[in-house]
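Exercise 4. Each item below gives a protein and its sequence. For each, produce the structure-token representation.

Item: Uridylate-specific endoribonuclease (Sinocyclocheilus rhinocerous).
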Amino acid sequence: MKIILILLLTITLISQGYSDSLDFLLDSVSDAEIKSLSETLYKLDHNRATASELVIDPQTLISSSETGSKDDLSSQPLFKQVSSTLLSKPTYKALLDLLDNYRRVTGEAEDVPSQEVQEQDTFLQQTMNTDVGRELYNFLHSKGVYSSQSEFIQDLKMMWFGLYSRSSGKLDSSGFEHIFAGEIKGGKVSGFHNWLQFYLNEKQGLLNYYSHSFNGPWTTYPDVLGMQFEWDGYFKEVGSAIIGSSPEFDLAIYSLCYITRPGKKCYVSLGGQTLGIQTYTWDNSSYGDGKKYIASAYPATP
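Answer:
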């Protein structure tokens, strides 16, 4: 019976092609395994912020019905203190080097010189130098999704940094830009789900924190906030982000959910608390053998 099942599986993989075979492999990743792995990643995030390295002041909490009011209800910045020691860690530095590479308005084609390509490679390699990055790869490798670490890194590079068009047919966007750096589309802030980008822009006087409509149950970092803010004249009604997590943790959690539950809500466990991560696929273009770029990923807050 086992031999027959193996033969049937082999025929199925060959006849349906790479994309369908990958779907088959990912179907074998259970919800319980995702929760277990995310809990392990949470414990392995040695570069997360401590209470002495990061101090925030969430101030005004509003209801979900008030998120579109555009009222500045917080007189102080969200970030009171961020340690320079934290920001000098290799993955943090690699992320900071990337965040100023983008034209935020959709419809304006991105220019990617060789230096920026190198910064992408450095960021991905630095994440793989951490326990978080290695643990995620080892899990996906054990499931047969990737045969080598180099294959995994290359797929992450395409998935996150591959360019596609959100407006006017221009290669103006990528998953990384949308999620980590943020964009402006239709007169509104689009994406923007990274706390370091929030901190940098607030420090530069480009971002004004208004309020929050969700504060997660976590009492240490990483925490989760659903925030209202104005970014250089453009409003974000609910911008959710994991706060105090390391860059490698954000990349790993979003990648885990996107790879195993693309376009769906994925439930992870952080410190014994469940968090939903919503991902979206970019369906208008693809890379490789029909693989989909990541369109968005963020903590799903009420």
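Check: The longest helix spans residues 2-27.
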